[in-house]
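User: Could you go from structure to sequence for me? I need the amino acid at each position, not a summary. Structure tokens:
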């Protein structure tokens, strides 16, 4: 709100952090946990609005209906805060009040693509991480599917000729899938074999640690006696923790569009923003960005730049 005032599009959760302490939430009026939290008494929504130039059109929205009713052609700045805290999991999302990640991406691109100089868009499937930390693999994987759909939609709305799309993660999780499951077996189902040690079934998805650790009668819980297909089922883990941890292996980075060939193999994470800056012709190295080459043909200029940050923790 204060440091970077000219970001055109911001969407997500966190509404309660913008209002003074105990301010009643517009959506959850009876929920004390949804009330404002700021001890400085500031209303950051009003501050955000006051910073915008008068000749520009700024919009604050708090629900899906308001978001989808906007005409992107008449929106210069958009702030959308759809939950007091975190966005709801996709499986739990209220289709009336909360937009999907794909819907937010669509609106963002329509607004940002009006800029003839291009744009940078950061998209995060942040609740993938939360699902894994809670041991709720079904929630995490449905979040990943929604992220995949958002990436696909972004691809249809942009061009490979002028858009660099980067998809990566900042870490993995101690999440695993195995047990020699046959084709057609539900990923949330049981492996087609019993443990050769305790003679009990086990699910194809497991965690190295986390809240799914459970001992019944001194032995590992028999998962055939529980609803392991439930949305909030916590997959069994080897070590009991209230929250599952991140993993330590390398994560993948995928790219398409101009300069995508610079992202392949294994890289240090700090290399990625340098590639994006190089592709977008910003920063120190812009020798390749002349408006015209000696032959008269155009060489790369400023690109529409889309970065999709795939989660907080898909294990590739």
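Assistant: Here is the amino acid at each position, in order:
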């Amino acid at each position: 709100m204060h440091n970077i005032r000219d970001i055109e599009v911001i969407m997500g959760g966190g509404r309660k952090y913008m209002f003074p302490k105990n301010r009643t939430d517009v959506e959850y009026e009876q929920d004390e946990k949804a009330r404002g939290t700021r001890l400085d008494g500031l209303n950051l929504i009003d501050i955000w609005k006051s910073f915008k130039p008068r000749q520009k059109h700024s919009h604050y929205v708090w629900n899906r209906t308001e978001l989808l009713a906007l005409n992107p052609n008449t929106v210069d700045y958009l702030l959308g805060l759809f939950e007091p805290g975190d966005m709801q999991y996709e499986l739990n999302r209220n289709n009336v009040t909360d937009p999907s990640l794909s819907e937010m991406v669509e609106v963002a691109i329509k607004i940002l693509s009006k800029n003839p100089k291009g744009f940078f868009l950061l998209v995060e499937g942040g609740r993938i991480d939360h699902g894994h930390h809670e041991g709720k693999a079904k929630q995490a994987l449905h979040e990943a599917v929604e992220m995949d759909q958002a990436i696909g939609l972004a691809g249809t709305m942009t061009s490979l000729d002028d858009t660099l799309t980067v998809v990566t993660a900042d870490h993995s999780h101690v999440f695993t899938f195995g047990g020699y499951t046959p084709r057609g077996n539900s990923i949330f189902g049981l492996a087609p074999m019993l443990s050769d040690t305790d003679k009990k079934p086990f699910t194809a998805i497991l965690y190295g640690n986390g809240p799914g650790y459970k001992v019944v009668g001194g032995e590992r819980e028999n998962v055939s006696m529980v609803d392991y297909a439930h949305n909030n089922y916590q997959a069994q883990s080897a070590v009991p923790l209230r929250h599952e941890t991140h993993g330590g292996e390398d994560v993948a980075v995928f790219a398409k569009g101009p300069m995508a060939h610079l992202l392949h193999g294994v890289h240090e994470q700090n290399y990625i923003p340098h590639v994006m800056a190089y592709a977008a012709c910003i920063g120190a190295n812009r020798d390749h960005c002349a408006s015209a080459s000696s032959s008269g043909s155009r060489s790369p200029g400023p690109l529409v730049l889309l970065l999709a940050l795939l989660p907080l923790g898909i294990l590739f």
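One structural detail worth keeping in mind: Residues 137-157 form the longest helix (21 residues).
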